[in-house]
Every structure is written in structure tokens, then in C-alpha cells.
Amino acid sequence: MDSFVSALTIFVLASYLGLELITKVPPTLHTPLMSGANAVSGVTLIAAIVMAGERHSPLTSALAFVAVMLATINVVSGFMITHRMLRLFKRR
Amino acid sequence: MLPRYVTDLAYLLAAAGFVYGLQSQAHPRGAQRGSLLGAIGMLLAVVVTLLDKRIVDYTTIAAGLALGGAIGVGVALRTPVTALPQLVALRNAFGGAVAVLVAGAALLELVHRQHAATSPQFIVASVAADLIGGATCGAGLVAFAKLQGMLSDAPIRIPGVRALQGLLLLACVVLGALLVARPEQAARFWLLLAASGLLGVLAGLPISGADMPVVIALLTSLTGLAAAANGFMLPNTLLLISGALVGSSGIVLTRIMCRGMNRSIGDVLFHSGVMVAGGPSADEVYAGKVKSATAEEIAMVLDGARRVVIVPGYGMAVAQAQHAVRDLAHELERRGATVEYAIHPVAGRMPGQMNVLLAEADVPYEKMKELETINPTMDDVDVAIVIGANDIVNPLARTDPQSPIAGMPILDVDRARTVIVVKRSLSPGFAGIPNPLFAGERTLMFFADGKQAILDLLAAIKEA
User: Fold this and answer.
1) Are B139 and B88 in contact (CB under 8 A)?
2) Exposed end of chain B (fewer CB within 10 Å): N or C?
3) Environment class of residue B463 by beta-carbon count within 10 Å: exposed (0-12), middle (13-18) or buried (19+)?
4) Quick one: which of B441, B433, B424 has its CA closest to B402?
């Protein structure tokens, strides 16, 4: 139960922080923001990596492989495209 | 092999990078550096994870990283700005799928090793990841198919869908409860995935193109919550923090988009595209009142204009007219006019899509005005040019309380001295209602494809 309460504490406080930060983002940047959010939620990659690296049954390894691949696609394309878009806004 | 506290400290740094990255989106100037710091945080998190002592074999990891990285780079380099909404929809589907796969793999392993003692937190969070991730994946795939043109972007209705959704929801509750009670029956995890995935698909089908900004924002939020569910499951603080940040950012955007349409999220999800009978018919509104103009006539109107406002809609994105629009604006500015862009919060298919398109065409962000800023000044506008937009400039939203768009904030272009509407025909927008603006006394219709129309207009101005 202790570990649940500390996890919940982190979750709730980070949610408040998110609400506070995103409210300040101007509408002009909403598309890059969403693309960046995709990249950040790709952080599940780290869970997938541990899963893929442990000694497991073939089925588990196959699931973990797909998870690593999809999460990597999100992280890489998410950050790259966000970066490209934000450069458009910085030009002037 | 790193000790646990080193890994956790690295995760803390990564989380700080994400927070800084989000914070720096408050202004276009620092935003790119912030996003770069977020990416560095992600890289750090991945590197320390690779050094985790639980990892005994790197083949699967290397294959997944290499393949995913190659596809990711390819996608990033090839996706045009106009295709961003479908890409974000697809990535939302992927995000949901990853959360499900991580939870499923962890559960399978526990069963495999016959760990009888799974913690309630683990199993409840796994069920949550399965539910949220599955629904997000299903709805994200449908949204992608609609935006990509593989499915119609009009509402797709299936008879008896309400009953089916009710049954599926019941199945989700029962299967979830059974899994929590008996985690070793892991087959139920995949049944639950089937039910939640189908629920997501059924929720996505009736969504119209005009509602896409809300749906995309909501799905982004759900991928964050699914990642946070993984964070509760493992437990992992970085996943918890990142998931919460993304979850709440999606909620903020969903709320902004709903306000932009004066609709509640429940209304968008469950009554999408429901037509309200009544209101004036197209014939009553348009008959004998619509004035069509040629490029030369419009060029004359623009000749004396000192303040011009351009209103882009999804039609501009479809016609890829953003560069032509910028050229037209430059020409008008060269002749002494000031040109601004009025951007409705739900113009296009995802939040901020018009801004990115215009930015790609080198339009400085200072010239892109929000609805609240531009509307009070609309009386001073000499010419408003509406390109490929319809419902977001429909005055019925203000005047007809029975209209499906009643109360939706609109850009008040009808208050400008002259309105030029570039549109292919008088066909209605997603709301399915006629637009009295097109029949307005001060309105000139320019019937043509968006890009060609602007090019013709530009040529006519240069000749005059």
C-alpha cells in the first residue's frame, strides 16, 4: 500500500504540473506540442526494453520486441518532427 | 551494471528534461531548445535502462531499436506538414498498443514463473493499461484511417451500435474484475484487449472530420494515462511523471478544442454528427442572393484595401494553398495593406494545424491572430478573405439557437466591409447547414479550387 500511495502522489502532482504548464502554451504551438507529447509518452520504451532483455518465453519476447519497435517509432519520429516544426516558428 | 539509485537519478534528470521541454513551449523562441532538452532526457533514460542488471540478452532490444529507429527516421523525414494529423493519430494508436504489450508481457511472465503472489497494484494497473491502451489503439487506428482518406471522414453509423457498446463495456468490467481476482488466468487479458479495442473502434467510427481536433487531443491524453498505468504497474517514477504530464496536457487541449466548438466532450463522442432538423434550407438562404465574382473584380476590391484579414480553413490545407496565400499577402503588403491571419481554434483537423501550415510558408507567428484578439477589431477590416472554411465563419452560430453550431464561437468576418469567400461550391460543412455569410450583402463568392483561386487573384492584382 505504501508504494501505491507514493506512486499516486507522484502521479497527482505531475498531473497538476502538466495542467499548469500546458495552459501557458499559445495556440500557435499546439501541433508541435501534441507531436512532442507523443514522443514523451513513448517513454514506455524503457519498460519495453527491460521486458525485451530479460530471459523470457518466446511469446513474451515477441510481444516485447513489437513494443520496443513501436515505442521507438513514436520517440524518434515524435522528437524529430517536433524539432522540424519548431524551427519553422523560430525563423523570424 | 548500475546500482538502482543511479538509474533512478538518471530518470529524475530525464523527467526534469521533459518538464523543462513543456515549459519552454510557452514561447516560440525557446521552444525548439526545450524540445531538444526533452529528447536528451529521453536518450539518457534509454541509455541507463540499457545498463539495467535484469537485462541478459540484447538481441531482441537491438532488433526493436534498429527497426523502430529506421522507421521513425523515415516517417519523420517523409511526412509533409499537411499529413501531421494522421501521423499523430497513428502514433496515439502505437502508444496505446505499447502500453498493452508491456502490461501483457509482464503478466505472461508472472504466470509463466508461477508467481502466485502478484500485488493488487500490479494487476489493477495492468488491467487499466489494457483497457485504456486497447481503446486508444482502436480509436487511434480509426482516426488515422479517416484522416488518411481510407475511411469516409463523415460519421459512419452502425445500427444497434449503442447496445453493442453497452455489451462490450459490460464485458470489459467483468473481464477486468475476473483478472484482478485470478491474475493467473492470463488469457482473459487478451479477451479484455479485444473488447476494449473494439469499443475504441466503435467510438471512432461516428466521429466527423470537424470533430477530429477534439478526438486527437483526447487520444493523446489517453496514451499518457496508459503510460502512467504502466508506471503504477512496475512501479516506475519516470513513466508515472511522463504519463501524468502527457495525460494532463491532452486534457487541457481537449478542453480548449471543446470550448472552440461550444460542445462538451460527451456530446462530441456520443452525438457526433447528429443533425438537428429545422433551420432554413439552402435554397431559402442562397436563392438569388449569392454574388459570384471574377479574379479581376476581386483584385479591384483589394486594390484600395488597407487592412486585410485572411481566414484559413481545412480547405486551404487540402489544396496546399499556404504558399500561394503567403505570396498574395506579400503582394498586398507591398501595396501598403496590413495583412493578418485569423485562426479559429478548431480550424483544420488537429489543434494548431493552420499555424504550422502557415509557418511552413514563412508566415511569421506574430501575424497569426487568435479569435479573441481579432474579433473585436473586425469592424475595421476592409477585406476578409475566407479560404476553404465554412462552419467557423457561419453567423447562424450567433443568431439561430436551434442550429447544430449554436453558441460556437465564430470569426465575425461578416462585420468586415467586404468578405471574399474562396470555395469550390456552396456545399455545406460538417454541420450540414447553409451559411448565410455566403449570401451576405457584402460577400463576394469566388468559386474555384483554393490554390488556383489565389494564384489567379495574385496575377490579377499584379496586372491591375
Assistant:
1) no
2) N
3) exposed
4) B433
The tally of CA atoms less than 13 A away on the side-chain side of residue B145 is: 17
Measured between beta carbons, the chain B residues lying within 8 angstroms of A9 are: none
Angle at the Cα of B421 (from B419 to B427), degrees rounded to 5? 135
Residue B346 contacts residue B208 (beta carbons within 8 Å) = no
Say how many CB pairs under 8 Å bridge A and B: 362
Q: For chain A, how are helix, strand and coil distributed in percent, rounded to 5?
A: 90, 0, 10
Residue A83's CB: how many other CB atoms inside 10 A? 20
Instruction: Name the CA dihedral angle for B319, B157, B137, B152, rounded to a multiple of 10 degrees.
Output: -20
B392 — contact with chain A (CB < 8 Å)? no
> pTM for the complete prediction?
0.93
* Mean pLDDT (chain B, rounded): 92
Catalytic pick from B391, B412, B414, B456?
Answer: B391
Select from A53, A87, A90 the Cβ nearest to the Cβ of B61. Answer: A53
Q: Pick the closest to residue B285 from B179, B157, B400 (CA basis).
A: B400
pLDDT digits (tens, 9 = 90+) for B38-64: 999 999 999 999 998 889 999 999 999
Residues in chain A: 92
Q: Measured between alpha carbons, how far is B215 from B212 in angstroms, rounded to an integer?
A: 5
Distance from CA of A6 to the nearest CA of B (A): 10
Residue B387 is inside which H or E element, if any?
Answer: strand B383-387
Residue A66 has, within 13 A of its CA and on its CB side, a CA count of 17
Main-chain dihedrals φ then ψ at residue B341, nearest 5 degrees: -115, 130
Sign of CA dihedral B140, B141, B147, B153: negative
Sign of the torsion angle spanned by Cα atoms A46, A47, A51, A54 = positive
CA nearest to B228, candidates B238, B219, B216, B220: B238
The residue type of B295 is: A
Question: What's the rounded mean pLDDT across residues B229-246?
Answer: 96
- Which is nearest to B15 in space by CA: A31, A18, A53? A18
Q: What Å distances lie between residue B161 and B136, B165, B166, CA to CA? A: 18, 6, 9
- The single-letter code of the amino acid at B301 is V
Cα Rg of chain A, angstroms: 17
